[in-house]
Amino acid sequence: MKDSAMNETGNNIKRKYYIKMAISWILVIAWAMVIFYLSSRTAVQSTVQSRKVISVFSFLLNLGVFDEETLTNIDGIVRECAHGVEYFILGALLFNALYICLNFRKQEEKLLFAETGIDCSDRFRALNCIICSLVIATLYALSDEIHQIYVPGRSCQLLDLIIDISGSLLGILLIWVFYFIREKRKERRLSLRSHRVI
């Protein structure tokens, strides 16, 4: 009876984590496709898009009408910011997906320990998630810049690659801090509960 209840609990935990992992990786792939689509747009299409963004912000902030030179400079800044934001989101999603996989492994190891008494050390730690996320994001950013060589009016630029990698790293670190704080709060709550029981 106890074994069947433990197996049922284990199956429920596995099911929950399989769903979480599937959703997290679907989000990564979907966002990578969004980046690919945006990089496939020609220079003219990209300029039209960024200038629409500028006109919206200009209207909301009541900045008036810009001359062509100022508009060109702002357009460049908007594009660089867009690069950073795209990869900030990608980095965050990648770390999230890998961290969920890490937690699933931890849960499996806890179940194994409960059933057999065999203690397993973590094969993947948060640092590994950070490194793996950054490597994947960097490789994707590099492939994205190469892809832009074949898009009319676009080019492969080192500055864009640096912005992409920096954005990814920022997104990764932000999500890591979020998970770190959440885990510490969980530990504190569990510690308080155990003291109350005692």
What's a concise summary of this model?
This protein is mostly helical and 198 residues long.
Structural notes for this entry:
The chain contains 5 helices and no strands. 16% of the residues are buried. The protein is mostly helical and 198 residues long. It has one domain.
What topology does this entry show?
Blueprint (H helix, E strand, L loop, with lengths): L1 H39 L2 H18 L7 H49 L9 H24 L8 H40 L1
Helix pairs in contact: 1-3, 1-4, 2-3, 3-4, 3-5, 4-5
| Rg, nearest Å | 23 Å
Number of strands: 0
The helix count comes to 5
Approximate helicity band? over 70%
Helix-strand topology string: HHHHH
Quaternary state of this entry equals single chain
User: What's the main sheet like?
Assistant: none
Q: Which class of secondary structure composition applies to the elements?
A: mainly alpha
Mean pLDDT: 80
The N- to C-terminal Cα distance equals 28 Å
| Strand proportion | under 5%
| Domains, number | 1
Large-scale geometry:
elongated
> Which residues form runs of ≥5 with pLDDT under 50?
111-123
Key features?
198 residues; mainly alpha; 5 helices
